[in-house]
Amino acid sequence: MSLHQDAADTLSAWKPADRGQESLRQAYLGFLAARQDACERACAAGHITASALVLDNTGSSVLLTLHPRVGRWLQLGGHCEPEDATLAGAALREATEESGIPGLTIDPTPLHVDVHPITCSLGVPTRHFDVRFAVHAPENALAVRSDESLDLRWWPLDALPPDPDRSAGIGAMVAALP
Predict the structure, then answer these.
(1) How high is the pLDDT of residue 164?
(2) For residues 172, 76, 128 and 69, what is the CA-based torsion angle, rounded to 10 degrees?
(3) What gap in Å lies between CA 119 and CA 127, rounded to an integer?
(4) For residue 31, how many other CB atoms are within 10 A of its CB?
(5) Per-residue confidence (pLDDT) for residue 122, from 0 to 100
(6) How far apart are the first and last CA of the chain?
(7) How many CB atoms lie under 10 A from the CB of residue 165?
(8) Low-confidence ranges of the chain (pLDDT < 50)
(9) φ, ψ at 14 (rounded to 5°)
């Protein structure tokens, strides 16, 4: 099975909790149906990305990265790679690479989706069709900042960093947690 097919199957099976997320899910499915290259970063019209909301072992804190290009605290994640077989696998790979934490586990059911404009590695304005998953760190996990981050920090769920225009969506992801 291809990553494209996995993305379509994953989003087809997902039942979001609210109308806004359902509307976005339908838009993602339409985008996937229209573009066989929808999961490839070379797709200039936009591309599917995979993110991870990394929770500590107690579920009371979330690991966020200070993104160098965006200049905001965000969840871990990013572009799908040719070797990724599944969206959840891409999110888990990104979370492991960006956190340095071995032994992360992922819930393969999407938590949240978001489409946002960005100028990414293509160097031209595009859109990320981000599929976000909940990931759990093992007990006593020690995060190590990668070169893809300005900072990496655990934030209590009840004291998230400021997001004045709500563009980061961390609060929405936290609200979607089971």
Answers:
(1) 63
(2) 110
(3) 8
(4) 21
(5) 67
(6) 29
(7) 6
(8) none
(9) -70, 135
Q: What are phi and psi of 20, to 5 degrees?
A: -60, -45
Contact (Cβ atoms closer than 8 angstroms) between residue 48 and residue 38: yes
Six-digit token pair at 60? 């009371």
Q: How would DSSP label each residue in 10-37?
A: HHHH---SSHHHHHHHHHHHHHHHH-TT
pLDDT of residue 70: 80
CA distance 57 to 106: 12
Beta-ladder partners of 79: 49
For residue 168, the model assigns a pLDDT of 67
Which tens digits make up the pLDDT trace of 61-98? 999 999 888 888 999 999 999 999 999 999 999 999 99
Closest CA to 69 of 165, 160, 172, 147: 147
